[in-house]
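Re-run with default settings, no changes from the original entry. Doing this only to confirm the output is reproducible before filing.
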Amino acid sequence: MKKQVVYIHGGESFANHADYLERLKTMDLWHLESVASDVPFKKWTGTFSEDLGDAYEVIMPPMPNKQNAKFSEWSIWFERHFVHLSGEVTLIGCSLGAMFLAKYLSQNNIPFRPVAVILMAGAYRLPGFDDKDCGDFLIEPEKVSVLSEKTDELIIMHSKDDFLVPYAHAEALYQAIPQATLMSFEDKNHFLIPEFPELTKKIKEITNNKTLLA
């Protein structure tokens, strides 16, 4: 049986519909070749399955309306996948995906125990942080501490040069959950990078150790 890795991508969320409409009017049309860069950007997720190898099944659900995400909608879609998950499951969330997993797993029980939960570049409800738009997905770091009881390994990943979510969010989460592992990086921004070997290496390390201990 293949080891399963579920990756929840990022997205945007708007408190006011008018702000969402304005975003549609101004955002780049990255999908058009005529306006794309001469050198197309390639993100590590494009080769994630290949990098992990044949021993893994990588599941990357296209979460509903990622341009104006709603926590309740993402919850329903996430739950639809439970029946297809069994055995060794690693859950990964990046950006809004990390925020979603942190809040959902803190507030709900799921029908399997993940071998690992990896939260990458997530934001949390901290004093002074403007949560107007992503408030539907935010949770206080202290409330995420319950995750240490729901998974074999909890890993926080954040880069100190993240231009969207300050590194202080990772520090606050780690302070609330000292049982977790904090993996800090210097130059991976918001993990919008072409290669991410550190992630695949960590997943293989965790799952191989799990197999040896079984």
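The chain has a mean pLDDT of 92. The beta strands are 3-8, 56-59, 89-94, 116-120, 154-159, 181-185.
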